[in-house]
Design goal:
Largest sheet: 8 strands, mixed
Helix content: 10-25%
Distance between the termini: 53 Å
CATH architecture: 3-Layer(aba) Sandwich
Oligomer: single chain
CATH class: Alpha Beta
CATH topology: Glutaconate Coenzyme A-transferase
Shape: globular
Order of helices and strands: HEHEHEHEHEEEEEHEE
Length: about 240
């Protein structure tokens, strides 16, 4: 018997995300992005989203689907390269973008999950990152950074059991476990859904207590990766 956490589709899992919601989205570049959840959200008639993600899409994919529909009013991220859709909106003042150093970005999310309200860091001191922030002197000058919370987190894992215990494949884990801990509601799409007990304790990267909704995704694209033989790559050496 499946648990109440298991949903039939992405559409069903994201249906209560409303205008003005804050949304964390896992992934680094296009690695580990929750493609099905993003597509389902793009079909909702909502706007004014605050999106917290390392990059707000890349190469025309991922969260770009929400940008193109003017669903995002504010973005908190670390990287905007490779994203002409975001660049265009920034230059036209159509979106508020807050750039956060990547280490600070992940630590602000981690702090939220652990109940830490804020922390001091030397990163960004003396730059525009420090504007308007409290400063204190420790062994060096530091600025105050506040924890990052969200109403929803959408993430992707390779395997989940029906309680929501998650296994991530290698670097596709990236920010996702931290985001799951920092959001009120965590929605997880998985490539494989198994029964409780089929994942061994050593395989579990994130316990199911941090997961509220799970569904099995499909139709994943992998067109940024392809196999090349030595001949195709111009290497004529034989083994």
């Amino acid at each position: 018997m499946s648990t109440p956490k298991v949903y039939n589709s992405a559409k069903e899992a994201v249906s209560d995300i409303t205008s003005g919601s804050s949304l964390m989205s896992g992934g680094f570049g296009l690695c580990g992005i929750p493609e099905n959840s993003i597509d389902a959200i793009s079909d909702l008639q909502i706007n004014g989203l605050t999106v917290i993600s390392n990059n707000i899409g890349n190469s025309g994919r991922g969260l770009v689907a929400l940008l193109k529909k003017d669903m995002i009013s504010s973005a908190i991220c670390s990287y905007v390269g490779g994203n002409p859709d975001l660049e265009s909106r920034m230059l036209k003042d159509e979106i508020k973008v807050t750039l956060v150093p990547q280490g600070t970005f992940s630590e602000r999310i981690r702090a939220a999950g652990l109940g830490i309200r804020a922390f001091y860091t030397p990163t960004g001191h003396g730059t525009s990152v420090a504007l308007g922030k409290d400063e204190k002197m420790f062994d060096r000058p530091c600025i105050l950074e506040k924890a990052l919370h969200a109403d929803f987190a959408i993430i992707k894992a390779e395997i989940a059991d029906e309680y929501g215990n998650l296994y991530f494949k290698e670097t596709a884990r990236n920010f996702s476990p931290l985001m799951a801990m920092a959001a009120k509601t965590t929605i997880v799409e998985v490539e494989k859904l198994v029964k409780i007990g089929e994942l061994s304790p050593d395989q579990i990267h994130l316990p199911g207590i941090f997961v509220q909704r799970i569904y099995q995704g499909s139709n994943y694209k992998n067109d940024i990766e392809f196999k090349m033989t030595k001949k195709e790559s111009g290497d004529s050496n034989e083994d």
